[in-house]
Every structure is written in C-alpha cells, then in structure tokens.
Write a structure and sequence with these properties.
Elements (H helix, E strand, L loop, with lengths): L1 E5 L2 E2 L4 H13 L6 E6 L1 E2 L7 E4 L9 H14 L6 E4 L8 E4 L4 H8 L6 H15 L5 E4 L2 H10 L7 E3 L6 H5 L3 H11 L7 E7 L7 H14 L6 E7 L3 H11 L5 E5 L4 H7 L2 E3 L9 H8 L4 E4 L14 E4 L5 H11 L2 H15 L4 H29 L1
Parallel strand pairs: 1-3, 1-6, 2-4, 3-5, 6-7, 7-8, 8-9, 10-11, 10-13, 11-12, 13-14, 14-15
Helix pairs in contact: 1-14, 2-4, 7-10, 8-9, 8-12, 11-13
C-alpha cells in the first residue's frame, strides 16, 4: 500500500507532531507499506520514508492552514495513493487523526474567547474536511475527543473510533530507577523520606498548577503528619506568579521548579505521585508516561487519559472542576506508602498495554480495512454498470 501521511510539522515538538512521528516511523518498517510524508518541516530517523515539501503562505497567519491544505491537495493529486492519512483537517483525506476537540468548542468553552479571523479559518477548514463530499474515517485520541466531535458534527458514530497514543517502554528502561531517584532528589534537596508530587506541563494555567499548589497547601495545613510532601514542577510557564502564590500559602520551601528538561524520565522515576488536574486535555501523554514509571495519577474528568484509569485503582479521577480540598484528599490517601506502591504497579500494568507499537499496529489494521472497503465499493460499482 502507498500511504500519504500529512502533518505540517513532522517529528518536531508537540503532541500531534510526536504522535505522527512515533506511529509513522514504526509503520514504515513494514514491507507491505510505502510511506510518503507531506510536511512543511520535518525531523526523521527513518530512511525508508519519502518526504515531500509542502509550502505554506506564512503571512498573514490565517493563510497558513488554508495554504497548507491547498498545496497538500495539489501535491497528493500527482501521486497514486491508496490512503491519505492526515493529522489535521485538509480538503480531502481517507483517515483523519483528531488530536484535539473541534476548534469552535475549544475557543468557546476552554479558551473562553471569541474566535478571531485565524480561528474562523480553522473552523471552516475543519468543517469542510469533516462534512464535505468525502467524509473521512475519524480516529480520535480519546473518548473525550470523540464525544465532542459527535456533539458538533452530524457524523455517523460508525465513522469515528478511538485509538489512544502510546508510550515507549524503552524510554524508561534505559534509566536506572534507584540512580535517577538519588540524583534528582539530591539535586533539589529532597530526602528519601519525602513524598514527592510531580507536575509536568507546558501550560500551567490549563493544566491547573495553581490547583495542585493549593491542594498541597491544604494538605500540610490540615495535618502536621504530611510535612514530608514536596512538589516538583517540570515545564515552562509564569514561574514567578506561582512562586508568589506558594509564598502567600506558606509552602514556597516545598516547591522546586525544574523548567524544561530532556531527561524528564528521571523526574518521573524520582517521584511518588503524579498530579495533573487539567481544565482540559484531549489526552495528556504525561499521564501515560507517569503510569509507565509506576506512579499513581491524579487527574480530572476533563483529561482524555481517564479512559485508561479506574478511579481508586491506578490513581484518582476527580470531577471536572475539583477544589483544592479534593486534591488534598487524594494526595493524603497516596501518602500511605503501601497503597501508593500498589496503585503505581497497577498503573504500570495498564501503561504496558498502551505502547507505540500497539498504536502503530492498530493504525496498520485500519489501513488494511480502508483498502478492503474501497475494493468492495469498486467491485459493487462494477456490477452496477
């Protein structure tokens, strides 16, 4: 099969970019697939992939997605592709992986903003791609995404399915748990007896770092027995704003900001609990990574990774809008070492079932299914003539 994979930035920083790369590189190793990637920028380790440069009109900004879709369409038409698999809405595709919810819902209910010209262009392109004459099969990264798509668009439910992102087992097995734990804890003045809560995110506001900080403050204020609880924050955001909050709450000495790191695996392995009670997260790959590192997780109903978690077993799934007291209550439950370790082991058992190899195998099965369906349609059309 000759497959066209479409994404503006392939293999670069970002959830969709990483997903596309992890899956496509694995698919390219199969002899029954010839992979062609259509992108404006790319980074790749796989030499068997053929890359095609797609130009864009960068200015004004609203022209970027439209021009990318237009030039992609022009270039793909020159080849004879069995399947067009896009990771963002374009004009014509057989399979669309949706990494986010519909843009109009995102702007209205998550960002709480009116859509500008750029947003309206994205909304138009998304609608055209999903409801045009050639409705693609939609692959959502979580049930949360699927539900929001069905809420907005009149797409038959049979045309949308859920395939979750994966995680690399090798990423974590390459690090020594004991050594990583010792190194990171020494670096930030943490003892072996400290119960370390880990937060990982590049958007502190959406991921609700403030809620985690307030939850830790509530916990230690209520009971002196929780004095060993500390918080490690990995990611990029307005550090001073949150340090100021921690000072006001009297817990600034319990918080360490790490910033962006290329060794995030060490921080997972050095920690005891993972907390990311996001206001909205279409999946939340960091949750799956934490589970692979044997950490019990605390998230909300608005995080797509809830699909993988039975609350009270691998961690806790809070309501969509929890209070600091809710976070504190779950943190308190996880300060009990035996319970924390048991839940962490169960979290890893689940994570081992959601590897990138599994995700790639599921996508490959979809390719074969789509080609079989196309063959069936061709045969039926022939008999009708």
């Amino acid at each position: 099969m000759k497959i066209a994979v479409v994404i503006p930035k392939y293999g670069l920083v970002g959830g969709a970019e990483g997903f596309a790369c992890e899956v496509t590189e694995r698919l390219a190793r199969h002899e029954d697939l010839r992979i062609h990637v259509f992108a404006n920028q790319w980074q790749s380790r796989e030499t068997s992939i053929t890359f095609h440069k797609v130009p864009t009109i960068p200015f004004p900004r609203l022209m970027r997605p439209i021009s990318f879709a237009y030039f992609t369409d022009k270039r793909i038409k020159t080849g004879d592709y069995d399947i067009i698999h896009s990771h963002e809405p374009i004009f014509n595709m057989d399979l669309l992986t949706l990494h986010g919810i519909p843009h109009s819902i995102w702007m209205r209910e998550v960002r709480c903003k009116k859509p500008g010209l750029f947003d309206r262009r994205l909304i138009w392109l998304e609608r055209k791609g999903l409801t045009g004459s050639r409705t693609p099969l939609v692959m959502a990264v979580s049930s949360l995404v699927k539900d929001q798509v069905l809420r907005l668009y009149k797409i038959p439910e049979s045309k949308i399915l859920v395939i979750h992102p994966g995680v690399s087992v090798e990423r974590f097995s390459a690090f020594d748990r004991k050594g990583s734990r010792q190194q990171i804890r020494q670096r930030y003045g943490l003892s072996e007896d400290d119960v370390v809560v880990l937060f990982v995110g590049m958007n502190f506001e959406i991921k609700r770092l403030q809620l985690v900080i307030r939850g830790v403050a509530d916990l230690v204020r209520e009971n002196i027995g929780f004095s060993r609880v500390k918080l490690l924050i990995v990611g990029k955001g307005n550090k001073e704003r949150y340090l100021s909050l921690a000072r006001d709450l009297g817990i600034v000495n319990r918080i360490s900001f790490v910033g962006v790191t290329h060794e995030v695996e060490k921080y997972y392995l050095a920690s005891d609990i993972f907390a990311m009670p996001s206001a909205f997260d279409t999946f939340g790959l960091a949750v799956l990574e934490a589970m692979m590192a044997e950490l019990p997780v605390i998230i909300t109903q608005r995080v797509g990774a809830k699909d993988l978690i039975e609350s009270g077993v691998q961690g806790f799934v809070l309501s969509s809008d929890p209070s600091p007291g809710d976070v504190a209550e779950k943190l308190a439950a996880l300060t009990e070492k035996k319970r924390r370790l048991e839940m962490g082991k169960k979290a890893r058992e689940v994570a081992l079932r959601y590897t990138w190899d599994r995700t790639a195998d599921q996508v490959r099965e979809l390719y074969h299914l789509l080609v079989r369906q196309e063959d069936d349609l061709s045969r039926r059309s022939y008999h009708l003539k």
